[in-house]
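Hi R.,

Here's the chain you asked about this morning:
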Amino acid sequence: MNTGLKVWLWIVLVVNALSAISTCRLFGVAALVPGGVAIVALSLVCSALIIAGTAVLLFARKKLGFYLMCACALLGLIMNIVMRTNLIAAIISAVFCPLITFLLMRKEWDAFQ
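And here is the predicted structure, written out as tokens:
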């Protein structure tokens, strides 16, 4: 695995862990909004799955981690569309993480199981 991919995966891992921690703090506020707890819980599940996918890519070197990242990016995009957030930002966040990951791992794609 090349250094650029390792660095990128560590960045994704840390940023999503911090995102999950900050999302946990929203449960109190989310209880005041109808459906808020469900949205926060789904966001936490999505963050956890991205962390798991990144860890599978980084440590086990399996393509399953990449596919999990892509699925979570799609789920995040759907959540953002349903919540009517900024569509442009939602598309950018859903596309760039898997795209950068793929571009960094494409030369070594066959090395992953």
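One quick note: Residues 3-111 form one domain.

Cheers,
M.
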